[in-house]
Amino acid sequence: MKKLFGFFSKEKKEALDKGLEKTKQNFFSRLGRAIVGKSKVDDEVLDELENILIAADVGVDTTLKIIRRIEARVQRDKYVNTAELNRILREEIAALLAENQTEELNDFELPPRDTPYVMLVVGVNGVGKTTTIGKLAAQFKQKGKKVMLGAADTFRAAAVDQLKMWGERAGVPVVELGMGKDPASVAYEATKRALEEKADLLIIDTAGRLHNKTNLMNELAKIKRTIQKLIPDAPHEVLLVLDGSTGQNAVIQAREFTKVTDVSAIAITKLDGTAKGGVVIGISDEFKIPIKYIGVGEKIEDLQIFNRYEFVDSLFEENA
């Protein structure tokens, strides 16, 4: 099948291909075994495909949706041979992502504004939240944007220091008041500084977990109220960071965070080195929240803008 889309640079495409390699190998080796010796897609093949999709952490509900779509095509076309299964599966996954992905960014872009664009970043500890913030800061700066960071994750040991390290690495200032300080006060000070220094983008790190969901919800609400005193329509984006290598645990985390705050975009990290890349499809389908960034390696540029066409192309490339 012809490539669906192609604005990615060669280097980014190679990084994406490499990052999805384990998912691809696991998925297609199992699919190959499922159809060996069979000439047409029958109930047995579909049952095995269902198991394979679930094993790739696509999720049960999304898997059943994909299977129903393939069943409908088999019924409509009367006879679908197994050689066509990859193409059909590819088309149905691309269609599913297209339904749920409400925006398609070409690059690290910001909408034109007179005041800083404020991004609030949420996610549990250990998912790569602070690293994602650092990589975002570096890439937006490379695009000529004036970026500032706010260290409002003041409860986790070394979180402030980690963000400062990334600030130095990216060459962007970090506003911090130290460990144990009120996160909302840090967010206020960072917003004030961003306004004074005419920053294009302010990224605020927040606590990954408090004592319970109510505390977390109250803390995030307080941060929002505080920054709205200075920029009434802020935050302009609430980015949830999830660890793709945890599979269905990432889905559970997404459910918890979407209950307590208005998540507007998702970043899925650590897709390299895992066979659970199918979780991207399940998360997109369940939450209907745009997946904006994916992490496919250690390098700064390995945090990529998520493009559904290139994602599906990489997942199926060797089998096109």
Automatic annotation (TrEMBL):
<dbReference type="InterPro" id="IPR013822">
    <property type="entry name" value="Signal_recog_particl_SRP54_hlx"/>
</dbReference>
<dbReference type="GO" id="GO:0005525">
    <property type="term" value="F:GTP binding"/>
</dbReference>
<keyword id="KW-0472">Membrane</keyword>
<dbReference type="InterPro" id="IPR042101">
    <property type="entry name" value="SRP54_N_sf"/>
</dbReference>
<dbReference type="InterPro" id="IPR004390">
    <property type="entry name" value="SR_rcpt_FtsY"/>
</dbReference>
<dbReference type="GO" id="GO:0005047">
    <property type="term" value="F:signal recognition particle binding"/>
</dbReference>
<dbReference type="GO" id="GO:0006614">
    <property type="term" value="P:SRP-dependent cotranslational protein targeting to membrane"/>
</dbReference>
<dbReference type="Pfam" id="PF00448">
    <property type="entry name" value="SRP54"/>
</dbReference>
<feature type="binding site">
    <location>
        <begin position="269"/>
        <end position="272"/>
    </location>
    <ligand>
        <name>GTP</name>
    </ligand>
</feature>
<dbReference type="GO" id="GO:0005886">
    <property type="term" value="C:plasma membrane"/>
</dbReference>
<feature type="domain" description="SRP54-type proteins GTP-binding">
    <location>
        <begin position="290"/>
        <end position="303"/>
    </location>
</feature>
<keyword id="KW-0675">Receptor</keyword>
<comment type="similarity">
    <text>Belongs to the GTP-binding SRP family. FtsY subfamily.</text>
</comment>
<dbReference type="InterPro" id="IPR000897">
    <property type="entry name" value="SRP54_GTPase_dom"/>
</dbReference>
<comment type="subunit">
    <text>Part of the signal recognition particle protein translocation system, which is composed of SRP and FtsY.</text>
</comment>
<protein>
    <recommendedName>
        <fullName>Signal recognition particle receptor FtsY</fullName>
        <ecNumber>3.6.5.4</ecNumber>
    </recommendedName>
</protein>
<dbReference type="GO" id="GO:0003924">
    <property type="term" value="F:GTPase activity"/>
</dbReference>
<feature type="binding site">
    <location>
        <begin position="123"/>
        <end position="130"/>
    </location>
    <ligand>
        <name>GTP</name>
    </ligand>
</feature>
<dbReference type="GO" id="GO:0005737">
    <property type="term" value="C:cytoplasm"/>
</dbReference>
<dbReference type="InterPro" id="IPR003593">
    <property type="entry name" value="AAA+_ATPase"/>
</dbReference>
<dbReference type="Pfam" id="PF02881">
    <property type="entry name" value="SRP54_N"/>
</dbReference>
<keyword id="KW-0547">Nucleotide-binding</keyword>
<keyword id="KW-0378">Hydrolase</keyword>
<comment type="function">
    <text>Involved in targeting and insertion of nascent membrane proteins into the cytoplasmic membrane. Acts as a receptor for the complex formed by the signal recognition particle (SRP) and the ribosome-nascent chain (RNC).</text>
</comment>
<keyword id="KW-1003">Cell membrane</keyword>
<feature type="binding site">
    <location>
        <begin position="205"/>
        <end position="209"/>
    </location>
    <ligand>
        <name>GTP</name>
    </ligand>
</feature>
<keyword id="KW-0963">Cytoplasm</keyword>
<dbReference type="InterPro" id="IPR027417">
    <property type="entry name" value="P-loop_NTPase"/>
</dbReference>
<dbReference type="InterPro" id="IPR036225">
    <property type="entry name" value="SRP/SRP_N"/>
</dbReference>
<keyword id="KW-0342">GTP-binding</keyword>
